């Protein structure tokens, strides 16, 4: 849950344009877009009828969003963040920033789609365009997840800040591409779920519906895209500017790939000018050989070990509307931190 709050905070940071977020604030009603029921205040939006995409609400819709750790366990800052921390974003233009844009765009589409299906929004509901009997012989239930609405809302809500700058700038082109790649990660992993109906558990009638994948699956798909992201540069193509691979020997990227403009800085050492915190003081996994292991995460500097009593948030519950209430639990752990 805590990681979901951090991830949701990233979304709020992106929408507000601030590099530091301390607490989410509800949005104000200024202007309505009747096409999809969006109410905007500057670059921050909320849904009609007082359904506000505050950080807490988005976090509650993304409790399973433990996809964030694959990125946060790396040298990029974030491992020590909690929901009350000031939140530094990765340097703009890098592959880490590409991941943040993609995952937050996907997160908005996911949260709104789930809210539509659960009846929390008056302006949308289930996707009833898929109905009748399928070629495979099962009956469509008529209540599939309305991913089309979720994607449309994400495009309006998330992309507005980049489009307001002018979509021809290199950074805007990169961010818009990665926003769309995040939404594609949900669309390409949509799945069919079914339920059998009949006497004594038989499957005389099977009803099915299209459902969004678990957000963990979306996150891991984007993590793979992060690892294989393409470095690009802007180039004039006809009458418009486009992003093309910097190395002509690389194959062109697709709409589902992440792209970045600038190489990542050295995340081992602190560089506040670039917004890099370094890895000193970061917790690490003593037994892991992966990037979250002390050997790699601490960049060869070694690590400290201490027995500490850890206060943890536990038994967190979302209360409508809109706050998360948790208990405090104490646990004795062996903590390893980078020198």
Describe the structure.
With 339 residues, this protein is an alpha+beta fold. It has two domains: 2-278, no CATH class; 280-339, Endo-n-acetylneuraminidase fold, CATH 3.30.2460. Helices cover 30% and strands 22% of the residues. It has eight helices and eleven strands. The protein has helices spanning 2-16, 55-61, 69-72, 95-117, 147-165, 170-187, 215-227, 294-297, and strands spanning 31-33, 38-41, 44-47, 139-140, 191-197, 205-211, 230-237, 240-245, 259-260, 303-319, 323-338. The strands form four sheets. Strands 1-2-3 form a three-stranded antiparallel β-sheet. A three-stranded mixed β-sheet has the order 4-6-5, with no helix packed on it. It starts with a helix and ends with a strand. This is Protein Wnt. It comes from Sapajus apella. It holds the Pfam family wnt. GO terms for molecular function: cytokine activity; frizzled binding.
Rg, Cα atoms, Å = 22 Å
Number of DSSP E strands: 11
Strand order of the largest sheet: 1-2-3
Low-confidence stretches: 1-7, 18-57, 59-70, 78-87
Measured as a percent range, the helix fraction is 25-40%
Structural class: alpha+beta
Q: H/E order of the elements?
A: HEEEHHHEHHEEHEEEHEE
Task: Tell me the fraction of residues in β-strands, as a range.
Answer: 15-25%
Mean pLDDT: 75
Q: Based on Cα principal axes, name the global outline.
A: globular
